[in-house]
Amino acid sequence: MCGIVGYVGEQQAAPILLEGLSKLEYRGYDSAGIAVYSDGALNVAKTRGRLQALADMTGGGAKIQGTMGIGHTRWATHGEPSDINSHPHVSSSGRFAVVHNGIIENYIPLKKKLMEKGFEFVSETDTEVVAHLFEYYYDGDMVDALIKVIQRVDGSYALGILSADDPDRFVAVRKSSPMIIGLGEHENFIASDVTAILKHTRNIYYLEDDEIVVLSKDDVKIYNIDKEEVQKKVFTVNWDISAAEKGGYEHFMMKEIEEQPKALRDTINPRIQDGKIVLDSVSLTEEDIRSLNRIHIVACGSAYHVGVVGKYIIEKLTRIPVEVEVASEFRYHDPIIDEHDLTIIISQSGETADTFAALKEAKSKNSRILSIVNVVGSTIANASDDILYTWAGPEIAVATTKAYSTQLSMIYMIALYMADKISMVSKAEYAQIVHEILAIPEKVEEILKHKEQIQFLASQFYNSKSIFFIGRNLDYAVSLEGSLKLKEISYIHSEAYAAGELKHGTISLIEEGTLVIALATGSELFDKTISNVKEVKARGAVVLGVTTEDREHVEDVCDYVIRIPKTHEILLPSLSVVPLQLFGYYVASLKGCDIDKPRNLAKSVTVE
Ligand code: F6R
Asked: In what residue span(s) does the SIS domain sit (predicted)?
């Protein structure tokens, strides 16, 4: 989604903006632009295409002089990707420039009114109304104008606004779209996320909705909508800069796949003390858990797939009913939910618009909210009753890997923690699962040691037109993720099916040579899945089985077999997903796809 960077300080702004925007490229974009204040005017450069085109146009920023500016990478929503539709957008007089992430939902009536008042629109975007509206309301004070603007616009926004009348300061505001404030020495920043400014500062302010920020070189002031000053706590970000760099890898995705053991250790180890799961940030008591009617897990994409695993595990261990739903559906069907329900929200970015809207829906019905989030201080984290952070570090590749794995590990720990609180798990089983959770990172390392085997398999199938993933129960939940990983980065059509469901229609798509990846890791349903493998083989499928190291005779029914280490049954998804991530990666790599930035996709989906 769109990325924003803003700078005011003593250095030349344009190169800093370009560099910051380059760190936001991973979010997905189709055009880029900057506006810099110079000598009572605004110098704007913007273009469709890659950031390199903007860098070429501005001589790496050297052609645009000035020490204060705003920059933007656009992911088109309203109007095609074009030079004109790129941000910054300027007001009719050219005195104000605006960058925006989000959607102004009522831009059509506002545009009509502004046109009646003589404002001329040049783009097809919703953002341009903000530039004209700001000019319309501006009476010498940027904060007053911005308050009036946000009182008129509906929707979501992170806005940075620069004025040719103000040589020292610019303003920003956010609502339901990410934006943080970076605090430096004689320089200050705005950014869509910390990776854009990590090189300059680790001291951050997180903003609440509709808090207005005035940034100058030596000062940052924050106001509420009544123009009262708000005091903020400074957060220090401990992410390692190198975590957001490729560090010799061809793609962030492979780097992040390989970082999984570390991310898992960082997430798991602090939460297990003397064989006990300690979730300090969770305030659920035994009584709270006993009184729960139901748990809802709500998320999007891969985070939703973690929820599907979560349903099986939480129900198995606690016997509390769990419903799992994609956020974009949940909020629109008037979900049956009340104060006796717990809602678990899962989100890497903590900014996904649909997931946040679902959180608000659950909250409005008095459900308690427990979130699993990777980005500290993100919108979802701020709005939750209890937060469990995954310590995966920055995830740059659009296709999630280490965030998914750490979310899974959190789900295991929550499930076991709750089961223990309400005495649903024996001491022996508790100890065994804890022991196995601690061993996951090492077992993932073991799988990664044999990645060449997966590379070879990918080389056999990268020309496939369509690939199916099948499995039962937890194996089905992992199939969903394996299929998504493959299709989103390699553009090969793929579907995941509950193995027993295939014969109710979809099996008609299986023909001579169709690849079916069959997950058969769970022991309880192993024989049933093998029967389903035989059904597809009888119709010409080539089958790649994924099973545990101790299973015998799988080679007799499958054409190829990938083996993973043994672990406790409920933890198998943490291991079986790794070869599927690698398979998707290698297939996409052999096809020459843009792995870290697949077409049409954005990292943090901040529009509905
Ligand atoms: C797929 C992927 C997406 C995200 C989804 C939710 O590889 O990364 O499906 O899982 O967009 O994003 P978050 O977790 O940031 O809410």
From this structure: 285-424, 457-598
Predicted local distance difference test score (pLDDT) of residue 77: 83
The rounded Å distance from CA 458 to ligand 1 centre is: 24
Q: Which residues pair with 102 in a beta bridge?
A: 157
- Tell me what pLDDT residue 376 has: 86
Does position 78 have pLDDT exceeding 90, yes or no? Answer: no
Report pLDDT for 554. Answer: 94
Of 375, 30, 340, 213, nearest to 355 (Cα)?
A: 375
Radius of gyration (C-alpha) of the chain in whole angstroms: 25
Residue-wise burial string across 195-204, b where 16 or more C-beta atoms lie within 10 A, e elsewhere: bbbbebbbbb
Q: 302 CA to middle of ligand 1, Å?
A: 5
Residue recorded with tokens 């056999």: 460
In the numeric block, which tokens belong to residue 401?
């890997």
Ligand 1 atom having least distance to the Cα of 352: 16
Q: Nearest residue CA, atom 7 of ligand 1? A: 399
Q: Which atom of ligand 1 is nearest to the CA of 404?
A: 10
Q: Is the pLDDT of residue 166 over 90?
A: yes
Please tell me the residue having the least CA distance from ligand 1 atom 11. Answer: 301
Q: List the beta strands (DSSP E) in 350-456.
A: 368-373, 386-389
- What the block records as the tokens of 550 is 């101790």
How many angstroms does the Cα of residue 110 sit away from the middle of ligand 1? 33
In the DSSP assignment, the letter for residue 237 is -
d(CA 51, CA 538): 51
Q: Say whether 603 is catalytic.
A: yes
pLDDT for res 243: 72
Residue 335 preceded by cis peptide, ω within 30: no
Nearest-angstrom CA–CA distance, 120 and 89: 12
Mean pLDDT, rounded, for 566-593? 97
Mean pLDDT (whole number) for 63-78: 93
- Strands 180-183 and 203-206, by their bridges, are antiparallel
Task: Quote the CA–CA distance of 180 and 378 in Å, as a whole number.
Answer: 9
Q: What is the pTM of this model?
A: 0.83
Q: How far is CA 49 from the centre of its chain?
A: 23
pLDDT tops 80 at residue 241:
no
Under DSSP, the state recorded for 122 is -
Cβ contact 586:459 at 8 Å? yes
Distance 524 CA to ligand 1 centre (A): 30
Residues near ligand 1 with C-beta < 6 Å? 300-303, 347-349, 352, 355, 399-400, 484, 488, 604-605
2 in active site: yes
